[in-house]
Amino acid sequence: MPDSRGRPVPVGLQGTTAAPAGHDTTAANRARQNFDGVASVWLFGYGSLIYKADFPYLERRPATIHGWSRRLWQGSHDHRGTPANPGRVATLVAEAGATCTGMAYRVAPATFAQLDFREKNGYLRHVVQLDFGHGESTEGVVYIAAPNNAAWLGPASIAAIARHVAAAAGPSGRNRDYVLRLADALHALGVEDPHVFAVATALRELPG
How confident is the model at residue 38 (pLDDT cuts 50, 70, 90)? Predict the structure, then answer.
């Protein structure tokens, strides 16, 4: 089925694989959707994918998804933390009436081999409707870390999240830098995100 701009998009890609017991979701994601015969797929990014697109893409555009909120509730044992001291990174939490704006990338299906490895710490692919505004929308894929994944940290107060983030670092750098860069990227997009902005403000107020 073509999208509103005449390009092929995946149809009926919702996966059914349950979250694995361990952290690494690479194999589960590769079994989750079938991209045979699909020329390109829209990917929705809402965390570091907004500002760190270290993968090939054909096109990118701001987009919004409905019914989801961005929260710094997922543990990062492989990028912004370690197994002994995981960082906190973004995931999506279902919330009626909520919206989440990020960046959508149109990618070749082969790109998901790289993306699955990048998002392997508890994230599974899901299919969502991407809203580009002005009545234009299409189906796309998003990585979500659900509460039943092994790396889940869950909710905490803004102050507690900020203290946790300030003390974490991993192979991809300081957790603090991840949150502040995400906040800056959202500001650049003109997006209001009270949760991320509150954590970023609290981080800047911490000594050191």
Answer: very high
Question: What gap in Å lies between CA 63 and CA 140, rounded to an integer?
Answer: 10
Q: What is the pTM of this model?
A: 0.89
Check pLDDT > 90 for residue 146: yes
The domains of the chain are located at 26-205
Q: Annotate the chain with DSSP letters as a single string.
A: -B-TTS-B---S----PPPPSSSB-HHHHHTT---TT-S-EEEEE-SGGGT---S--SEEEEEEEEEEEEEEEEEESSSSS-SSS-EEEEEEEEEEEEEEEEEEEEE-GGGHHHHHHHTTBT-EEEEEEEEEETTEEEEEEEEE--TTSTTB-----HHHHHHHHHT-EETTEEHHHHHHHHHHHHHHHT---HHHHHHHHHHHHS--
Are 90 and 106 spatial neighbours (Cβ–Cβ below 8 Å)?
Answer: no
- Domain at 26-205: CATH code: 3.10.490.10
Catalytic site residue from 59, 95, 119, 192: 119
d(CA 133, CA 155): 31
Reply yes or no on whether 59 is catalytic.
no
